[in-house]
């Protein structure tokens, strides 16, 4: 297995101009990025592909300076300010040739929760946590009757029809897996519809992808997973991590 970490974004909502990059948010003696890389090292992945943009040199130097036993590759998404993270995802997938686990760079999680997901979940799956169905911001997962994913809805509320037709699975927290064949099909779909997808978040093309590809969901029942977009998100994750040292 290989890995892709999406790290291009600026993170303007966080309000941390004291940090060179959002992934440098500290958690004790670690950062978000060091936690990601050490988790992947613990999994024994063949390589990690880091898709960079904002302050790319600082992120590259930091990652290499950790001196981990983990092969690293770097891609610069030079148009990250005017495109969505779907392009970063595709750039990363193009550099892989095995099954792959993908991580948004702004997610905090207990390492054992992440390792359990990667080792035990379906090869094509998204990690999902419980969420408020009326949270317009979160990446809401809708499930078909057979329990596989039908769609991802983000940045808006669900319609009454969507609530009637589908089961609400929770929030896609920001790490997921694709086998080699699915990754290739997703990349092909992207380039066939590049004008429509290049400025979108990955939730949009994956909703289309789910119409003809079976994508499973993995429910995470344990607490401790946070998507960090704002200072309030960071404080919540930091408080949790301080209350659960070593997790």
From TrEMBL:
Domain of life: Bacteria
Alphabetized InterPro entries for the sequence: GlmU-like (IPR050065), MobA-like_NTP_Trfase (IPR025877), Nucleotide-diphossugar_trans (IPR029044)
Domain MobA-like NTP transferase: 3-131
N-terminal signal peptide: none
One Pfam family hit: NTP_transf_3
Alphabetical list of Gene3D superfamilies matching this protein: Spore Coat Polysaccharide Biosynthesis Protein SpsA, Chain A
Protein name: NTP transferase domain-containing protein
Organism of derivation: Candidatus Nitrohelix vancouverensis
């Amino acid at each position: 297995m290989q890995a892709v970490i999406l790290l291009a974004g600026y993170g303007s909502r966080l309000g941390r101009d004291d940090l060179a990059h959002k992934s440098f948010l500290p958690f004790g003696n670690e950062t978000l990025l060091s936690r990601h890389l050490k988790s992947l090292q613990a999994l024994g992945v063949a390589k990690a592909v880091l898709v960079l943009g904002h302050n790319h040199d600082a992120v590259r130097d930091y990652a290499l300076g950790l001196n981990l036993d983990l092969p690293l590759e770097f891609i610069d998404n030079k148009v990250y300010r005017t495109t969505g993270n779907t392009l970063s995802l595709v750039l990363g997938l193009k550099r892989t040739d095995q099954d792959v686990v993908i991580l948004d760079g702004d997610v905090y999680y207990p390492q054992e929760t992440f390792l359990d997901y990667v080792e035990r979940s379906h090869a094509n799956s998204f990690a999902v946590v419980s969420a408020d169905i009326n949270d317009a911001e979160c990446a809401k997962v809708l499930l078909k009757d057979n329990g596989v994913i039908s769609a991802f809805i983000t940045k808006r509320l669900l319609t009454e029809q969507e609530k009637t037709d589908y089961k609400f699975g929770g929030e896609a927290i920001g790490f997921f897996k694709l086998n080699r064949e699915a990754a290739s099909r997703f990349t092909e779909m992207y380039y066939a519809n590049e004008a429509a997808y290049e400025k979108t978040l990955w939730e949009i093309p994956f909703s289309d992808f789910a119409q003809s590809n079976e994508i499973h969901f993995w429910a995470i029942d344990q607490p401790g997973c946070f998507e960090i977009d704002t200072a309030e998100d960071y404080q919540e994750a930091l408080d949790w991590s301080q209350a659960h040292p070593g997790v």
